[in-house]
């Protein structure tokens, strides 16, 4: 077995998150940021930058984001952000309390984002499921894409990359692969 696979779970938060989720179904893939990613400081810088950007953008609406994963998964902040940045009126409820309504709301929001960015489904680095699952990597890709589209002059921290591990179940067991993924471009 890949030693990096085991190392990915030496951090309690990653292990707890993986164990509390449903068992990965056959053929499913999950991509995680390695806890040992060498670019952790730059990643934290990007998270802080995006959090402050959202808070500045939504200040008049009295919306305060403290955690990208925890505060964006249900679609409420994304809804307000898109309406504010793009002057878009989204045909969804402002507040979605049930998971079914959150899933529907996110689906509409992410469809609008894909249309605005003129991206095909195969080009998307996020999904309704990954955002609902509070996946940091997907959330960062989504926010960076929104920021670059609606505020192209925004000075995003450059050259943010993370080491990832992809876990996939196959008929012979778990298969893992490592990669480096770029979240922001080198300026």
Automatic annotation (TrEMBL):
Compartment annotation: Cytoplasm, Cytoskeleton
Gene Ontology CC annotations of this record: actin cytoskeleton; cytoplasm; focal adhesion
KW Cytoplasm (keyword) present: yes
Domain Calponin-homology (CH): 44-151
Keywords: Actin-binding, Cell adhesion, Cytoplasm, Cytoskeleton, Repeat
Principal location: cytoplasm
InterPro entries for the chain: CH_dom (IPR001715), CH_dom_sf (IPR036872), Parvin (IPR028433)
Pfam family, one: CH
Coiled-coil positions: none
GO biological process, one term: cell projection assembly
A GO term for molecular function: actin binding
Family: Belongs to the parvin family.
PANTHER family named among the record's database cross-references: GAMMA-PARVIN (PTHR12114:SF1), PARVIN (PTHR12114)
Protein's recorded name: PARVG protein
